[in-house]
Amino acid sequence: MLDFLFTSDAIMALLTLTFLEIILGIDNIVFISIAANKLPHNQRAKATNIGLLLAMLQRIILLFFVSFLVGLKHPFYTIDLEWLHIAVSWQSIILFSGGLFLIYKSTSEIREKVESPMHDENSLTRKKIKSLSQAIIQIIMIDFIFSIDSILTAVGMTNGLHANHNYNLVLMIIAVVISIGIMIGFANPIRKFIDAHPSIQLLGLAFLILIGFMLITEAGYLSNTQIFGSSVGAIPKGYLYFAITFSLFVEFLSFRIAKKTKA
């Protein structure tokens, strides 16, 4: 286990996944803060911390469930036509559906943030919360919605890293725990940084589109899909790491140039 966690692939996956989990958690922090701010001042910090801990717990539970389904590799149905061959398994269904969901969700989020960035916040602000228990129930519902793309991203980043599926699960759990811990300790600074640099969040959503496409191709590869005699191949995760690292480097350079321009 330790040998795997200290391999270059595992370290890159952990760093990238932790970064993406934090980016995905920004909206979660915003909505939890809106719900918590409706409570008396002495209960707000408690509600926020409980909300983030519940987010971590929900994600770990969902990771076990989704990882179990992804582990079901044996085909239960085969599509065999003249031009198409697919050996359908639960693993391929989960990966394919997850990829489509990430592409749809990320595209919708980008459009919403560009055209009506305050829509969801205004909708939640209108809801009445009178007690800590009501706030926690609201937070649990918010956490569940935001857990789905987080879990699918974790699966996309770690699937296939190790032959033993449990090792990949441990890596996902570590990334979730680290990201939630960072958000609990630095929620306000992270939120202020993202507010000052909204391009970071848009960049994170763009990465999810790449991960979604990678999940779809991986589903095709693992289900031995052949279209007109051509097999679908898996995209090496090194390409994804390079794209993310290069994009972040360009974004860093733009920050430096913007600072020098202001100075």
Largest beta sheet: strand ordering: 1-2-3-4
Q: What about the largest sheet?
A: 4 strands, antiparallel
| Percentage beta strand | under 5%
Number of helices: 9
Summarize the helix and strand pattern as letters.
HHHEEHHHHHEEH
Count of DSSP strands: 4
Spans of 5+ residues with little confidence (pLDDT < 50)? none
Kindly name the structural category.
mainly alpha
As a percent range, the share of helical residues equals: over 70%
Mean pLDDT: 80
**Total tally of structural domains:** 1
Based on CA inertia axes, which overall geometry fits? globular
Return Rg in Å.
Answer: 20 Å
N-C termini distance = 49 Å
Summary, kept brief:
The chain has one domain (2-262).
Which features characterize this protein?
263 residues, mainly alpha, four-stranded antiparallel sheet, 9 helices, 4 strands, membrane
